[in-house]
């Protein structure tokens, strides 16, 4: 397999004005007839080129140009293309292919999932359906005819509007769908199955009534309410915040069990992983409800940021994904708690994306090359891409950003464009120069900011010295400085101080001038603030204004001041994390020296003060109580000794529970819910704090507390509380553990999504022997390696969220992962490659672990028939 480069991009030699497809869905095979209206692209400089179409795993049945059947000598096929050497300038190409959806385990193209036909075409799945110009800059108007047995497949769907339906004499139904909006093939979708729909309507700002339907299996009809509400909220929000109205009379969502990703934004026919659309209190946790809301909104928002304006090529993937993640994050913030949402997103970025940036697969938000595009649906493209858009928002301010997005949509509606076009629109609308800022799209790696502060009491001046540098990444060294929006405030005893920045006008200031966005653009820069009557505590990178690693030599008392007094929720939380890291560092050093470490009183004291503060958002408080995650700590300490980290962290947690026993107990009782379950911010916050308290209290090993957990498990009516109780019973090896696991399974064996949570709880347990447990669960009748949700719940949870067991010193965890990758390599390359990622990070670990991890990578590399997906990750990792 070889790489494809952005610099080699050229426009397509042909365009497809119209695409007509006819699907004859069968139980053995499916026949696809296509009729493409083609013409030479006037923008192409090759006026005599033959026609090369993409196609993979297709049986070609016939081929005709303008009604004349082609003989075999007139075309040639390779594994991934069909070439017709001589074609007119304008013509109609008819092609028939046979495919086998029932045998398609890759879940790419057309496949079957629990009795229904469905498609997944992004990024390059359409070529597994028929020969086509399967690239996003070829946009075409689709008309789709579907023929299928009327009894087995009463629901037949595709994009756009249904224009015809009839019952044929042979017992089949024939429907026709027409989508008036030209679109690339990756947005094509087809669904056929025995489905039921929950229906509603939405009236747009201009009075258009849109029919909304969520199609599910009969048994799931009671789990669609939340997704429907989220959809309507998202439609309204996009009108209000971005001025974007929906553009068709129908919007359909279909839930599918077997799905590689979360969901897919096909034009007017979104297809969803059941895990991202179904929700009800009895089966779904609060996090699950929030995920449904976020993903429904994300896919809906793609209708403008992705579909109406799409990507020119896959190197521009973040154009639609980064922007859309930013949009859905702002939406979720508006629907719930903005600070909580921000902290959750930053946590994910700092553990997962920073790790990616530091590993062998590091790539810029706009990559220069790839071997397999499926490997680039990454946290860098999505989450760092969203941070890049957020920084533009911060630099421009909300009004100019809106002007920029309006201009972007207006200029490029119906086009396939680039990240550069997005930046150009933002510049044109705002008048701001983003030339240096563009480096965020080009450079991989996480920039580091080294900041120091000094106070001159005589002059009343405070000077911040800011140095930036970005580490080398594969193929990129000696990087130039980036344009970093650095949001700051200076805290005095009585609150944030007025900022007078010498010699530089800051352009984003709050009304009372206590917060400011500094433009960090050089390798080293100084910012001098004057008229300061006292030495301030700097509050830096407020709201996480840029995706960087910040280093500032805070004293402990300064961190505690931030924790208890800062007005920026993110900085308060982050100060807690920093103090937690100091504790962890000290605890690990003591352990190394064979000594006992005792948690510092100032830390537990600060947390006690927070627990006593009734005005604090409970969800925030819950997050502040949690020590830095093992995943984040693995980004902080080098090399990563997972066992030392785990044991030190567990000891500190227990000490914290001892120090805070009384307030935690009170909090646990105070947060009991009297109201019936609702997935609103207030209740979610309360449950989160309650269950965080319970998790701590359980570490005390007190029978009275264990009793409370057992009661909560047995009696709670919602999955959030039930699962939290189960988790703590499992993690603490409670005497009721086995029985609880068994009764949970019996209660929920008919609900695959709940059983996935059951797998997850067991796979994440740090108890010794978990690997053996996971292996035996793979033989459980509820497990199925062909279902990606189950693979994620059991195998990926073990390898990603269970560091101590995955990194067992005998290397058995690594061998287990390699075995699973090898098993999935042929059946589902995307999932295999995704699963493989933890092994690729081998360089972070101590020598002995490195060797074992590398050995497993080499074992995978030696496998015959490696998929492109797996090959790319393994080969880049071992070298
Ligand atoms: N484009 C999908 C999404 O992120 C994933 N393929 O919404
Ligand atoms: Zn997306």
How would you sum up this structure, described in words?
With 879 residues, the protein is α+β, with helices and mostly antiparallel strands. Helices cover 41% and strands 21% of the residues. It is built from 26 helices and 32 strands. Among the domains are: 4-194, Sandwich (Immunoglobulin-like), CATH 2.60.40; 449-554, Aminopeptidase N, middle-beta domain (Immunoglobulin-like, Sandwich). The longest helix has 34 residues, at 379-412. The protein is globular, with a radius of gyration of 28 Å. The strands form eight sheets. An eight-stranded mixed β-sheet has the order 6-5-9-3-2-12-15-14, with no helix packed on it. The chain has a five-stranded mixed β-sheet with strand order 17-18-19-21-20, with helices on one face. It starts with a strand and ends with a helix. Zinc ion binds next to helix 3. Belongs to the peptidase M1 family. GO terms for molecular function: alanyl aminopeptidase activity; metallopeptidase activity; zinc ion binding.
């Amino acid at each position: 397999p070889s790489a494809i480069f952005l610099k080699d991009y050229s426009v397509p030699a042909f365009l497809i004005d119209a695409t007509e497809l006819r699907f004859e869905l069968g139980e053995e095979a499916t026949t696809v007839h296509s009729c493409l209206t083609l013409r030479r692209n006037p923008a192409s400089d090759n006026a005599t080129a033959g026609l090369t179409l993409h196609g993979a795993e297709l049986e070609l049945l016939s081929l005709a140009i303008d009604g004349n059947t082609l003989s075999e000598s007139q075309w040639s096929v390779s594994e991934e293309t069909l070439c017709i050497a001589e074609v007119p300038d304008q013509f109609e190409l008819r092609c028939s292919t046979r495919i086998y959806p029932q045998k398609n385990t890759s879940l790419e193209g057309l496949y079957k999932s629990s009795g229904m036909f469905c498609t997944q075409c992004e990024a390059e799945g359409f070529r597994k359906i028929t020969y086509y110009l399967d690239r996003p800059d070829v946009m075409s108007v689709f008309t789709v005819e579907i023929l299928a047995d009327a009894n087995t497949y009463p629901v037949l769907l595709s994009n756009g509007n249904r224009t015809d339906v009839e019952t044929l004499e042979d017992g089949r139904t024939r429907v026709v769908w027409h989508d008036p909006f030209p679109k690339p093939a990756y947005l094509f979708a087809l669904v056929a199955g025995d489905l039921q729909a929950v229906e509603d309507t939405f009236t747009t700002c201009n009075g258009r009534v849109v029919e909304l339907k969520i199609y599910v299996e009969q048994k799931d009809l009671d789990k669609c309410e939340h997704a429907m509400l989220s959809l309507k909220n998202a439609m309204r929000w996009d009108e209000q915040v971005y001025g974007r109205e929906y553009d068709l009379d129908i919007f359909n969502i279909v839930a599918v069990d077997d799905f590689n990703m979360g969901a897919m934004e096909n034009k007017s026919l979104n297809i969803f992983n059941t895990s991202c659309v179904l929700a009800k209190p009895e089966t779904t946790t609060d996090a699950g409800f929030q995920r449904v809301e976020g993903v429904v909104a994300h896919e809906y928002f793609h209708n403008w940021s992705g579909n109406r304006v799409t990507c020119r090529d896959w190197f521009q993937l973040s154009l639609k994904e980064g922007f859309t993640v930013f949009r859905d994050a702002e939406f979720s913030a508006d629907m719930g708690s903005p600070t909580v949402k921000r902290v959750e997103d930053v946590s994910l970025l700092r553990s997962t994306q920073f790790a990616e940036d530091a590993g062998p697969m590091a790539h810029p938000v706009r990559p220069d090359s790839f071997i397999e595009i499926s490997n680039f649906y990454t946290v860098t493209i999505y989450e760092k891409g969203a941070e890049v858009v957020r920084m533009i928002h911060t630099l421009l301010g909300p009004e100019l950003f809106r002007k920029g997005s309006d201009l972007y949509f207006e200029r490029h509606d119906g086009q396939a464009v680039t990240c550069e076009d997005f930046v150009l629109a933002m510049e044109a609308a705002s008048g701001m120069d983003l030339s240096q800022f563009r480096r965020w799209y080009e450079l991989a790696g996480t920039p580091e900011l080294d900041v120091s502060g000094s106070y001159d009491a005589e002059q009343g001046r405070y000077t911040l010295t800011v140095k930036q540098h970005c580490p080398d990444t594969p193929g990129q060294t000696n990087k130039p400085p980036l344009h970093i929006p650095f949001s700051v405030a200076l805290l005095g005893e009585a609150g944030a101080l007025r900022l007078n920045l010498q010699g530089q006008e800051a352009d984003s200031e709050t009304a009372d001038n206590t917060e400011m966005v500094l433009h960090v653009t050089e390798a080293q820069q100084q910012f001098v603030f004057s008229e300061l009557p006292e030495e301030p505590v700097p509050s830096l990178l407020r709201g996480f204004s840029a995706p960087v690693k910040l280093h500032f030599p805070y004293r402990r008392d300064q961190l505690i001041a931030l924790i208890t007094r800062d007005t920026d929720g993110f900085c308060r939380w982050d100060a807690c994390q920093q103090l937690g890291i100091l504790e962890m560092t000290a605890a690990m050093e003591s352990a190394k020296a064979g000594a006992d470490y005792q948690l510092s009183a100032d830390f537990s004291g600060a947390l006690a003060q927070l627990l006593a503060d009734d005005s604090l958002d409970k969800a925030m408080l819950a997050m502040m109580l949690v020590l830095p995650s093992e995943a984040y700590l693995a980004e902080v300490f080098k090399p990563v000794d997972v066992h030392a980290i785990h044991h030190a962290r567990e000891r500190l947690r227990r000490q914290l529970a001892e120090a805070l026993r009384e307030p935690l107990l009170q909090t646990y009782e105070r947060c009991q819910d009297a109201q019936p379950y609702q997935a609103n911010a207030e209740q979610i916050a309360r449950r989160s704090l309650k269950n965080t308290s319970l998790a701590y209290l359980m570490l005390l090993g007190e029978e009275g507390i264990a009793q409370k957990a057992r009661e909560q498990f047995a009696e709670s009516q919602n999955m959030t509380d039930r699962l939290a109780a189960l988790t703590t019973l499992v993690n603490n090896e409670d005497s009721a553990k086995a029985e609880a696991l068994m009764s949970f399974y019996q209660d929920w064996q008919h609900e695959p999504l709940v059983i996935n949570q059951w797998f997850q709880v067991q796979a994440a347990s740090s108890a010794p022997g978990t690997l053996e447990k996971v292996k035996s669960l793979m033989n459980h009748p509820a497990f199925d390696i062909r279902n990606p949700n189950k693979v994620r719940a059991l195998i990926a949870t073990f390898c990603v969220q269970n560091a101590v067991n995955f990194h067992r010193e005998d290397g058995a965890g690594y061998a287990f992962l390699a075995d699973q990758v090898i098993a999935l390599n042929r059946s589902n390359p995307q999932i295999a490659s995704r699963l493989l990622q933890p092994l690729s990070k081998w360089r972070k670990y101590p020598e002995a672990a490195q060797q074992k991890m590398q050995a497993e990578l080499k074992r995978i590399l030696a496998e015959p028939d490696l998929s492109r997906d797996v090959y790319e990750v393994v080969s880049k990792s071992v070298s």
